[in-house]
Amino acid sequence: MMDLYYGADYYPEHWPENRWEVDAELMENCKINIVRVGEFAWAKLEPAEGEYNFDWLDKAIDILSKHDINVVIGTPTAAPPKWLVDKHPEILMRDEKGHPRGFGTRRHYCYNSPVYQKYTKEIVKKMAEHFKGQSSIVAWQIDNEFGCHDTTRCYCENCLQKFRKWLKEKYGDIDELNKAWGTIFWSQIYRSFEEIILPAYTVCDSQDHSNPHNPGLMLDFYRFSSDSVVKYQKLQIDEIKKYSLVPITHNLMGHFDQIDYFDLSKDLDFVSWDNYPNNQWNKASYQLTAMAHDLMRGIKNKNFWVMEEQSGPCGWSVMGDTPKPGQIRLWAYQAIAHGAEAILYFRWRACTFGTEEYWYGILDHDGIPRRRYYEVQQVGRELSKLSDLILDSRVVAQIAIVKSYDNLWSHELQPHNSNFDYNGLIAQYYKGLIANNVSVDMISEECSFDKYKVVFMPAFNLMTDEIQSKVEEYVKNGGVLVITFRSGTRNWDNSITTKTLPGYFKKISGIEVEEFDSLNQGRKVIINGIDSECSASIWCDILKTSEAETLATYGSDYYKGKSAITVNNFGKGRVYYIGCDLDNEFMKKLLYIIISDAGIRTNIPKSVKGVETVLKKKDTERYLMILNHNSYPVNINVGGKYKELITGDIIDGSVYLLPFGVAILRD
Ligand code: GLA
Ligand code: ZN
Question: What is the distance in A from the centroid of ligand 2 to the CA of 272?
Fold first, then answer.
């Protein structure tokens, strides 16, 4: 049986050669069997144009493989070297004002630059050729975190030309484009594709945070930019595939939104991502981390890897909190619970120079094993015994939330209300669901809905006739659909529908949105229903129920007594319409009603604050992972006899979890 991959991101080029053997030994001692290397090493792999030097990496890989450590090799294109930038400054990305984004950090290149594409192909080809026989290489990583540091959208001449071509392919005829974008507005009619602009700096810019350009143009530019990354990645994949059969991935970011990750990952063999729950810029709740893991699993409907997992305090100029004893272990198990099949910690050892001197890893700058190393070692030993249980296991989810990048971008451009945030709404539904102890798949609208009892499409704004038919079919056959305010109000080209709201969802929801009210300056409106009360503070749709039944009404303002939340039977299924934002308690309760009506059973135990449960299935076996995210111990009532699979202990009635503790129970 194969062992689960467990490892670290390793930069041998940052350390003297005589340390490599020591590193490999220390790695082996904590059951590390994989490292990622190479992804920023272009200047060392090709110190001058056409002069290649792979010896150092061969040597490092050799030492590692003597310790049974496998390798993920990264293509180094996230960091174009100085000689290349000096020779071809035209490869640099440009900002909205046309300024080059220069050398000095990383990701300073344009995906659409033909020159950069040529150099990319060359270095990737050379690497693929060189490493093709190396049996310890078990995966390739393309580039590094596409789009990071706001590098998805570029405003250079290459991008302008490619954008025009992209539009021509999409619309064929310029009149079609004019119609879709509505360029009659403010005399923006284009007579040919050669006249098209990029949405660069213009007159109404910067009055507030909104973008004043035509919404059709903007959305197409966002789509084009995302597609450009997909194409750039494909160019590298094609090159590698000529020489190698090993699987190819890219390291995604959990909460990154400028690239359509569903599209990007179609060309990849598997998804991996970089998980930093607590760093200089961000402290993610465990629910948000869980949602990111679930999205990563949903992208290819397949288990994934964590290519970079936080293992120390981290930041660039200042540091986030130091992971407390037990947290590194907990984060690894949380990833595994949600579908990770490999964990690589970032980074093996903190670097003494460069922008990321403060990004601590398993080892400190002095390279001496301490608490974090020993925790990694403990996890390594535990996981080596659990491999069989984890590999090819599945999360048992009967609920899906649809995340759409097109919808996200449309909402980002025009959020309807300054407090509205599409991702925030999705996260609130997600949190409300997992607070009820159920698992959720994060999927795209293209994914099949058939296996789910309940599908959520929060604020699914942009619609097509095809999606409408798909959704109707699903509900007709017995599915439960949950939609919210701002669902179905726009066409896929980002223009507003002339259908009566909720537009594309009117028929199945059995309601009409008579009016709506965007709540500003702290206004609140009371909601009454499901034996509870809360208030909306962002948006209220005032609903006329033709066929639907009312579950909650407004309790204040001029629409007091009118419907706020409804449910409608359609075919064998039902459709819930939630016309306003809700507070978390009300949400949790409403979601419980919706899922239990749909026949979904929540996991045992009943929800405990700060404790996450994930039910998993491996072949015919089921096991429950219980994760205590609290900094205090908890005693969880599980009402029955189980075997705890990490310790082998028999659990009877209740399980005791240490602060940040984990248990895996088999029925
Ligand atoms: C990202 C990158 C890494 C490193 C870490 C820390 O996840 O992929 O190269 O920069 O962040 O900043
Ligand atoms: Zn460009």
Answer: 26
pTM over 0.85: yes
467-523 pLDDT, tens digit per residue, is 999 999 999 999 999 999 999 999 999 999 999 999 999 999 999 999 999 999 999
pLDDT band at 567 (very low <50, low <70, confident <90, very high): very high
How many angstroms is it from 347 CA to the middle of ligand 1? 9
- Distances in whole angstroms, Cα of residue 151 to Cα of each of 96, 178, 214: 12, 29, 22
- Tell how far the Cα of 157 is from the centroid of ligand 2, in angstroms: 6
Pairing of strands 532-536, 525-529: antiparallel
As given in the structure block, the two tokens for residue 510 are 């059995």
Q: Give the tokens for residue 336.
A: 């595994």
379, two tokens: 């996890």
Contact 399, 441 (CB under 8 A): yes
Ligand nearest to the CA of 282: 1
Reported as a single tens digit per residue, the pLDDT across 196-245 is 999 998 888 765 667 889 999 999 999 999 999 999 999 999 999 999 99
Pocket test for ligand 1, best of 10, 143, 356, 357 (most atoms within 8 A of CB): 356
CB 441 near ligand 1, within 6 Å: no
Q: Which atom of ligand 1 is nearest to 308's Cα?
A: 7
